[in-house]
Amino acid sequence: MKNSNTTKRTKFIFVTGGVLSSLGKGLAAAAIGALLEARGLTVTFQKLDPYINVDPGTMNPFQHGEVFVTDDGAEADLDMGHYERYTNAVMAQKNNYTSGRIYYSVIQKERRGEYLGGTVQVIPHITDEIKAAVMQLDGTVDVAIIEIGGTIGDIEGLPFVEAIRQLRIDLGRDYSLFIHLTLVPYIKAAGELKTKPTQHSVRELRADGIQPDILLCRTEVPINDSLKRKISMFCNVPVDAVITAIDVDTIYEVPLRFHAEGLDNKILELLNMWTGKPNIKPWEDLVYKIQNPKDTIQIAITGKYVDLTESYKSLHESLVHGGLANDVKVELTYISAEDLESKNATELLKGCHGVLVPGGFGQRGVEGKINAITYARENKIPFFGICLGMQLAVVEYARNVLGLTDAHSTELEDKTDNPVIYLIKEWFDYRTQKIQTRDESSDMGGTLRLGAYPCILSDNTFAKAAYGEEEIFERHRHRYEFNNDYRAQLEEKGMVISGTSPDNNLVEIVEIADHPWFLGCQFHPEFKSKPMKPHPLFRDFIAAAIKHKG
Ligand code: GLN
User: What is the CATH number of the domain that holds 326?
Assistant: First the structure.
């Protein structure tokens, strides 16, 4: 264990989930982090995902949810987004591991002969690799919150559970804590809350050698004291460590609810820590603001609701934050991009105060998204295009203003005579400080531009007005780029290039000056917005939508 006199030891909280998935383990972990920060402690997080993919980068977001991108270019689990939004922690490669990544590293070591001829096994080799991944965080913060993905009882999660069981022995009680999130379902027909699933889930966890210290019980209705006593008795957890995690109207209420249940006090008591009183006022103010908006704004997003809620989690939250910055509630209307191809855009988009075309990959609904952009541009409705949305704004402008009717992105039509968005052959990569090359034959994952890149803003633009800064850093995740061969023509006809890479080679932001607010960015600003610090582009987009509403 890394422990010098200069670095303090980190305390570890391990969060597991029981009964079923989707109970909000990530949010619970994030909310715990928020409460600890409210007490002046420093926190970080790690998500351990049991699946075999090395990272979620190639996974279908409609199946697995959003792929979150970190500054250092990790394609990571969407829980990283919750962690960053609720706290000051900055996530990176070391904050998300999958079974695949752990096995990959063990297998590479085996090939290099590092196990000296020994038989390589789940215990100890895989579990040691997991423990080493966790212990990288030691000494970096006061408390590290480690979330184990999946549900207790899953076969594939076992090595992680075994690793944290061992870590309790290595770290000792004052430095490790087990929190188990479980479900206490309300059975309408009986008019009763049922504790049996929780009992079974804790029994399962104990069979794996882990006695939870605290239970977070997800429930629709409050859990009264006698039921808490019952859970306490059957699960071998003190009654004041049985915490109600009741359904809330806004996810930003979770830290307050946990605090009211005494969760942060209990955590500190069990970890043997002392801090001042927590300052939860910012969270109270935030929730008050969310619950008392002055107006409601309608934003149309191209994409089906079912596809968009999990796969565009950060985007969704950023729009909420943009609303908070302007004291309004943002209502999102999801317009199917395929419907926008066959039906009239004016009909579908009527009544919206802003149009947003989000990022995406592939052909589906592209012409519909372009129709939405035409509608927003011509009718002077505030428009925000993100990544693919920015690329399509360029395509739309080239087609309808420059008259290059077949203009396209080569991702979507490789035979176009006017590839306004294309695979750039050579570019200087600020992250690696190297010249990078790309062509059609290079592999998919390898050619994505990933992570935070600098961007220089031009004066008198929407972007500069929003950020108020010369140089910004935003996170990218895309393969295709703006084609500089078309830059002069586009600029001549009124498209404004308001943000570029420092060498002026990569176009990062485009705008239309003769419009109330029309901006497309090649990066994903939604990965950096927080409820306490709404992102300037979302803030200004919503402000423009309010103006449009009049
Ligand atoms: N498909 C586009 C590209 O790869 C845009 C990606 C995105 O929107 N994240 O460049």
Answer: 3.40.50.880
Same domain for 245 and 327: no
- Which of 285, 317, 347 is the last residue before a domain boundary? 285
**Is residue 364 in contact with ligand 1, taking CB distance under 6 Å?**
no
Q: Is residue 40 part of a domain?
A: yes
- Identify whether the C-beta of residue 17 lies closer than 8 Å to the C-beta of residue 133: no
- Residue that wins the pLDDT comparison between 307 and 462: 462
- Would you say 499 and 455 are in contact if contact means Cβ atoms under 8 Å apart? yes
| Beta pairing partners, 97 | 48
Structure confidence by residue, pLDDT tens digits, 248-302: 999 999 999 999 999 999 999 999 999 989 999 999 999 999 999 999 999 999 9
482 lines ligand 1 (CB under 6 A): no
C-beta 359 within 6 A of ligand 1? yes
Catalytic machinery residues? 387, 524, 526
Compute CA 12 distance to the chain's CA centroid, rounded to the nearest angstrom.
22
Residue nearest atom 1 of ligand 1, based on CA coordinates = 361
Ligand 1: distance of its center to the CA of 270 in Å?
Answer: 46
Question: Domain range for residue 154?
Answer: 14-285
Q: What's the CA-to-centroid distance between 195 and ligand 1, angstroms?
A: 46
How many separate domains does the chain show? Answer: 2
Q: What is the rounded distance in angstroms from the CA atom of residue 398 to the CA atom of residue 490?
A: 7
Q: Do 203 and 297 lie in a common domain? A: no
Atom nearest to 477 CA in ligand 1: 9
| Residues forming a β-bridge with 436 | 427
477 lines ligand 1 (CB under 6 A): yes
Shortest-distance atom of ligand 1 to CA 448:
4
Are 161 and 198 found together in one domain? Answer: yes
Query: What is d(CA 546, CA 330) in angstroms, rounded to the nearest whole number?
Result: 10
Q: In terms of domains, do 329 and 237 share one?
A: no
| Helix, strand, or coil (residue 513) | coil
Q: Are strands 214-219 and 176-183 parallel, antiparallel or unpaired?
A: parallel
Token reading at 213: 């210290």
